[in-house]
């Protein structure tokens, strides 16, 4: 391989625009060991628009395609792909690219179901390509600092986690409001982010019990005036209790069906103190803002570690994620969120739905091992997976 990775973008919607911003951040910092040579989307207008945006900073314009087959056939020198599609299409497109021998970074979640996620992981192992699940939340300086503080025992032995997001969302969010495209609501789409943070900061979830509901089946094109009603087939509320393998207890509530006063409470408690997201650390002896905690963390790590986590001072989480992927392709360096890590994150999110469907607690091992697929079976059947 040359000293430059050639990359094709598949799916040129909003999220890929965020990825393009990440690539641009790298370019601005003179990290230019990659080139985006192709952009593919069924909506050629979106692909053309993104290609124009990339050309403005890269200097060369990606070739636009509306078909993945044609892109893979035409771009013979393509090394890797960056995939950001509706969840239903994750596994067929990923498998197609892996079979073609391309290295893959794919937006979370890994796949629509765990069975299709396992198909991807099996293909990765067979082909031996670099594979990354694009999970960026843990890469933020605040998350690195929180993780460091917990591991350093700054709040003592961890006891409890409270993760509560209560609000109302009436605006229509495209395909994400369609369960047959997304596989679930925010507890799936955003839930894998949070599941990854739980595993990163606290450890593995052993068992959970969840009640999931859909209180509001309608969204609106103009939510301020409740005009342009659109049906939504996803859940809008999940309330769960988590039992971690290390004895920590968690309470996870997420709803977008709560008019009036909202609530956002994200806190981990130990036997000496707590850390609240967005606020900071508080114990019986000290109180630090999140900014002060980040400063302490930065002072505690070596320049080498700092460069690894925040290359050339970059804190844009998607940019650092993409640099890790490029380096892995070029130099064989490790991937933090591998297919397996993404699989375990998604298992927690899907366990919420499985538990609610069964009306009973579920063991994560049973969900991960595909012993429980009651909720997911409808999607597997629709995709022709048995």
Task: Describe how the helices and strands are arranged.
Elements: E1 5-10, H1 14-28, E2 34-40, H2 44-58, E3 63-65, H3 68-74, E4 80-83, H4 90-99, E5 103-107, H5 114-127, E6 131-134, H6 141-151, E7 158-166, H7 179-182, H8 186-189, H9 191-201, E8 205-213, E9 218-222, E10 227-231, E11 237-244, E12 249-255, E13 263-270, E14 273-276, E15 280-283, E16 287-289, H10 290-300, H11 303-309, H12 317-331, H13 339-358, E17 362-363, H14 364-368, H15 377-382
Parallel strand pairs: 1-2, 1-4, 2-3, 4-5, 5-6, 7-12
Antiparallel strand pairs: 7-13, 8-11, 8-17, 9-10, 11-12, 13-14, 14-15, 15-16
Helix pairs in contact: 1-2, 1-12, 4-5, 5-13, 6-10, 9-13
The gyration radius over C-alpha positions equals 21 Å
CATH class of the largest domain: Alpha Beta
Shape: globular
Biggest beta sheet attributes: 9 strands, mixed
Beta-strand residue percentage: 15-25%
What is the CATH architecture annotation of the largest domain? 2-Layer Sandwich
Instruction: Indicate how many domains the architecture comprises.
Output: 2
Per DSSP E runs of 2 or more residues, the count of β-strands stands at 17
Based on helices, strands and strand pairing, what is the structural class? Answer: alpha/beta
Give the name of the CATH superfamily of the largest domain.
Dihydrodipicolinate Reductase, domain 2
Strand line-up of the largest beta sheet: 16-15-14-13-7-12-11-8-17
Q: How widely separated are the two ends?
A: 38 Å
- The average pLDDT score comes to 97
Helix tally equals 15
- Helix residue percentage: 40-55%
């Amino acid at each position: 391989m040359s000293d430059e990775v050639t990359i094709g973008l598949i799916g040129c919607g909003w999220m890929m625009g965020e990825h393009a911003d990440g690539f641009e951040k790298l370019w601005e910092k003179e990290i230019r060991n990659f080139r985006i040579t192709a952009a593919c989307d069924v909506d050629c207008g979106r692909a053309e628009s993104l290609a124009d945006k990339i050309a403005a900073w890269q200097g060369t314009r990606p070739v636009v395609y509306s078909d993945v087959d044609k892109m893979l056939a035409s771009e013979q020198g393509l090394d890797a792909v960056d995939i950001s599609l509706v969840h239903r299409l994750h596994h067929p497109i990923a498998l197609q690219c892996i079979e073609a021998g391309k290295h893959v970074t794919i937006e979370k979640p890994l796949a629509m179901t765990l069975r299709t996620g396992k198909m991807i992981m099996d293909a990765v192992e067979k082909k031996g390509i670099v594979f990354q699940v694009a999970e960026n939340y843990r890469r933020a300086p605040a998350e690195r600092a929180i993780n460091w503080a917990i591991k350093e025992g700054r709040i003592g032995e961890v006891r409890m986690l409270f993760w509560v997001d209560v609000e109302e969302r009436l605006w229509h969010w495209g395909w994400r409001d369609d369960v047959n495209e997304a596989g679930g609501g925010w507890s799936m789409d955003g839930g894998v982010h949070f599941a990854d943070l739980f595993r990163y900061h606290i450890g593995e979830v052993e068992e959970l019990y969840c009640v999931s509901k859909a209180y509001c089946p309608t969204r609106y094109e103009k939510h301020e005036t409740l005009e342009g009603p659109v049906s939504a087939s996803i859940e809008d509320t999940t309330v769960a209790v988590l039992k971690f393998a290390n004895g920590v207890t968690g309470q996870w509530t997420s709803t977008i069906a709560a008019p009036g006063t909202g609530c956002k409470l994200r806190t981990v408690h130990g036997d000496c103190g707590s850390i609240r997201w967005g606020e900071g650390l508080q114990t019986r002896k000290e109180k630090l803002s999140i900014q002060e905690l980040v400063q302490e963390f930065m002072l505690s790590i070596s320049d080498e570690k700092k460069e690894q986590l925040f290359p050339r001072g970059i804190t844009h989480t998607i940019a650092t994620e993409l640099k890790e992927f490029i380096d892995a392709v070029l130099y064989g360096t490790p991937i933090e969120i591998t297919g397996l890590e993404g699989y375990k994150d998604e298992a927690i999110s899907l366990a919420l739905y499985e538990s609610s469907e069964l009306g009973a607690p579920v063991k994560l091992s049973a969900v991960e091992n595909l012993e429980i697929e009651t909720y997911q079976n409808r999607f597997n059947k629709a995709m022709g997976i048995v």
